[in-house]
Structure formats: C-alpha cells, structure tokens
Amino acid sequence: MKKVTTGRYSRFFIYLVVVALLNLAGITLFFRADLTSNKVYSLSDASRKAVLTLSDPLTVKVFFNGNLPAPYNNIERYLHDLLEEYAVAGNRFFNYRFYNVSGEENEEPGGNRELAESYGIQPVQIQNIEQDEVKFRKAYMGMALIHGDIIETMPTITSTDGLEYRITSAIRKMNDKISALLNLKENVSVKLILSSSLAVVGPYMNITGLLELPSEIEGIVNKLNAKNYGKLSFSNLDPSAGNRDEQDAQRYNVLRLNWDEFTDRRGNTIPAGRGYAGIVIEYGDRSETVDLIEVISLPIFGTQYRLTDPGELEKAIDKTIENVININEEIGYLADHGALPIEGMSPVSGYLQQDESLSNFNRLLSEEYSIRRVNLKNGDIPEGLSTLIIAGAKENFTDYELYRIDRFLMKGKNLAIFMDSFNEVRPQSRSGMMGGSQRPLWMPLNTGLEKLLDHYGLSVGKSIILDENSFKQRMPQQFGGGERSIYFAPVIMNEMINKDAAYLKNIKGLVM
Fold first, then answer.
1. Alpha-carbon span 415 to 406, nearest angstrom
2. Phi, psi dihedrals of residue 285, rounded to the nearest 5°
3. What are phi and psi of 345, to 5 degrees?
4. Reduced to 3 states, what is the DSSP secondary structure of residue 280?
5. Residue 190 CB coordination number (10 Å)
6. Helices (H) and strands (E) in the chain — how many of each?
7. What class has domain 187-324?
8. What distance in Å separates the CA atoms of residue 141 and residue 139, rounded to the nearest whole number?
C-alpha cells in the first residue's frame, strides 16, 4: 500500500516538473500557426522581406471607432492579427498602436479624434441596421505609417481586401523614398508658374483667390519640405512679366488658357490674352507638371473651371516628387504620335482641356511606378523598361518605328495598346475662352499599329459598341441634376468577371 502511494506521488511530481518546464520554455519559445485554408493571417514572402529591410523604427497608428457594426468590426480584428504578424517579422523596428476614436464633437482638445485628423484621417459615413431601422453614423477607419520624417496615410479602410498589399507597398515606398532623398546631390526644384493676367479673367471663370495662390503654394511646399528632409526649393515664375518665363511654361507643357476680347455685364472691355497655371517639379533631367486649374468640358453646358483643392494639391506634389527622384520601378508611356498626354491635358479649341480619366490613371499608376515618357520619333525605346503603354495614338507609325516596337516585344517585354478606331474631331469654337457645345465628328483612324497587331493575330474592328447596361453619370444640381446614361461605357457586373485571374479576384465591377 505504501509503494502504491509513493508511486502516485512520484508520477504527480513528474507531471508537475513537466508542466513547469513547458511553461518555462513558453516564456522564451513560441510559434504561431495559421490553420486557414488560404493562409489569410500569414504574411507573404514579399511582406516579410519588406519589413526585414527596416533599419529604423516604423510606427503604425490605427484609428477606429469602437463598437462598429458588421462587417466593419471584423476589419479592426483582422488588422490586429495582421499587424502582429508584421511586428513578429520586423522585430524591434516595427511598432503599432490602436486608438479608439469616439468621433464626438464635444471630445476634449488633443484627443484621439484630433490626432487622427492631424494625419488627414476624416470620418466616413457608414450604414447601421438596428431593429429593422437603417441608421447612418460617422466613423473613423484609417491608419498612418510613420517612418522618420515620412508619413503615409490610409485615410479610409472599409475592407480587408488587398490590405496587406497596401501596407507592404507603403513600407517599401517609404524605405525607398528615405534612401533616395538622403542620396540626392541637389535639391528638388518646385516652380510655381502662374500668369498674373489670369487674375483679371479669373472671376469670369468662377475662379477666385488667384492673387493669394503663390503664398498658399509656398506654404504647402514648406510643409512638404519638413517631411522631405529639407530637399525642396521653391520659386515663383510669372509668364506675363517676361518672355523667358513664358518659354519655360511652354517647355514644361503647363496648362495654357486663351481668351478673346469680351465685354462683361457692366460694360467693361476685357482685352484678349493668354495665361499659364501649373506647378513644375524638376530634378536633374526629369520634370513633371501638377495642374492648378481643372478644366472640365461638359456637353451642352460648355467648359467649367475650378482650382484644385489644397489638400489634393499637396498630395499631388508629394507624389510627383517621388516620381522625379525615381523611387519606383519605371514604366514607359508613349509621349508622341498624338497619344493622349498622361497628365490628362489635351489641346481643344485653342486651350488645354483636362481629361479626368487620364488624370485618375496617372494618379493610380504613379502610386507604384515612375512614369517615363518615350519619344519614339527621336530615339529608341529606353533600356530598362519592362512595359510600354501606347494610349490613343493618332499619328502614323513608320515601318521602322513598328519594327522597334516589335523588337521590344521580342525581348520578352510587355506592350499595352489602348487603340481607337475613330478619331474624335471637335469643330473650332467661336466663343473663345468658354469653349462650345458643337457635336464632334468621328473620322476613321489608321496608324499602322493595325499591321503590328495583325502579325500577332489581333484585329480591331471599325465600330463603336453601345450597351444599355451602361454607366450612369450624375449631373450637378446647377445643371438640372438627375442621371445621364453613357452608352459607350458599359458596366460589367460582378457575375460576368473571370475570378480565376488573380488580378481580378477582388474586383466587384468594371466600367469599360
């Protein structure tokens, strides 16, 4: 009986020792296992590599309202798990913190709401269903990544789709930007090109505040200078004051506005003239232009003008700085043969008209790539480019130019052609500055690219496709409101999208 009791105590003591050793090992040794089928909570190799390159601390500040309704409550939970994975991979250089933002107007100054808005994170309106009643509330759902003096903000996070990709892209870009800025041999030049003559016609274009614009732009540049290690220099050029400044405006392809002589309602005569408005960011032999004035041509209502929002302008300047110092992979864009300008500006009726679609394309493309303009008439396609985009070319390509494009393809490179079968020709306007509303003419277009595509078994028909299931354009209230169907812009619904393609997996709909 005594031996049995002793044996029980011995086994109990052994179990106790084993448990104590396991707990001791657990203090210093641990592992994480992702048991989901598609490894939702595991970092990709690219993300691990990006976070391992950190040599200085990177802090992530996440701002979310508490008690969010589904499905938004799952986003914060997913972010907790995802950022913990980054922290494990990044060791001591990756830190994160969550801030519960009440979003109440009576919150004390210096609270989390004020901190969120200091990073450009504003509340968004979300829908909440309570007791069969639909309610709307404002909620903060964003994050800011801080690495040295560089800040990247994701002001709105409403889905977990592609979130790891966005975070990893931001980390890589911040790392590359810091390295590029510290290695600059000279400052990045930021030139404001603004004609003083525009201040006279500005009020007639519904544009006010042009006289105060230079000081506002200088303030934006000074703010960005603090975030870019003091590597920016600002200057102000007035093409109305000298021929040299006007030559610079023309060389940089800055937006030009022409107007004929006209008489206002008070009987004052405004003489004919022209003016330039834009911001040029230049470093070395690379330069890009940021638009100050948005020119929008609306059918029936004519041409409308408006100043670019200061907040959007600051973001655009910052993005353009990244392009000219070349922190991203380069992608080629054809700049001659009448191709659409990547900046979204095209000549119409004596002035440059803005294409919003191209401006958006340029903005999205610039987030991941540095755009390099290719002039095929003056030389070959530069080495080092893996992709060339030809968008809306309208002039003929010679056989030798087609041969160079074909040789580019034969090297295993990528070619993206956005091709029109017809050329839209707008009749010359008689109303000068405000443009006209005449219907365009559609002329058949042949550039020679048809021969190149035919060689690869592709052809483009001479036709225009219209679809009743098309995009609905919301008209502004000042133009009567309502919706207008754009029949040549068909809407592709979710069920008609091939989800087998990885790049279309998270796409819920397309407007062609």
1. 9
2. -100, 10
3. -115, 130
4. strand
5. 24
6. 12, 26
7. alpha beta
8. 6
Tokens 């250089």 correspond to 93
Cα torsion through 434, 440, 443, 445, rounded to 10: 60
Question: What is the residue-averaged pLDDT of the chain?
Answer: 82
Query: 126-183, pLDDT tens digit by residue?
Result: 877 766 666 778 889 999 999 988 889 999 998 888 899 889 988 988 888 888 888 8
Q: What is the 3-state secondary structure (H, E, C) of 445-505?
A: CCCCHHHHHHHCCCCCCCCCCCCCCEEEEECCHHHCCCEEEEEEEEEECHHHCCCCCHHHC
Q: What angle, rounded to 10 degrees, do the helices at 356-366 and 310-324 form?
A: 50
Banded pLDDT at 239 (limits 50, 70, 90) = very high
* CA distances in angstroms from 90 to 26, 143, 167, 199, 213, listed in the order given: 21, 18, 13, 53, 44
Question: In Å, how far from its chain's centre is CA 68?
Answer: 28
Q: Do domains 45-181 and 187-324 have the same CATH topology?
A: yes
**Six-digit token string for 85:** 């994975």
CATH architecture of 45-181: 3-Layer(aba) Sandwich (3.40)
Residue 342 burial (CB < 10 Å; 0-12/13-18/19+)? buried
* CA 259 – CA 377 distance, rounded (Å): 33
Total residue length of the chain? 512
E strand residue ranges, 65-149: 94-100, 124-130, 133-139, 141-147
Q: Does residue 506 contact residue 486 with C-beta atoms inside 8 Å?
A: no
State the pairing for strand pair 141-147/150-154: antiparallel
Edge-first strand listing for the sheet containing 369-374: 369-374, 329-334, 387-391, 414-418
Least confident of 39-53, 150-164, 296-310, 381-395: 296-310
Q: Where are the domains of the chain?
A: 1-30, 45-181, 187-324, 328-463, 465-512
Strand partners of residue 418 = 391
Order of strands, edge to edge, in the sheet holding 483-492?
Answer: 470-474, 483-492, 510-511
Nearest to 307 by CA among 293, 289, 290, 291: 293
Of 19-28, 278-287, 475-484, highest mean pLDDT = 278-287
- Give 308's contacts (C-beta < 8 A, 6+ positions apart): 291, 292, 293, 294, 316
Coarse DSSP helix, strand, coil percentages of the chain, rounded to the nearest 5 percent: 35, 30, 35
Strands (E), 105-263: 124-130, 133-139, 141-147, 150-154, 188-194, 232-237, 255-259, 262-263
**What Rg value do the Cα atoms of the chain yield, rounded?**
29
- The span from the CA of 132 to the CA of 140, in Å, is 24
What was the pLDDT predicted at 433? 43
Give phi and psi for 78, each to the nearest 5. Answer: -65, -40
Q: What is the dihedral of CA 490, 493, 496, 501, to 10 degrees?
A: 100
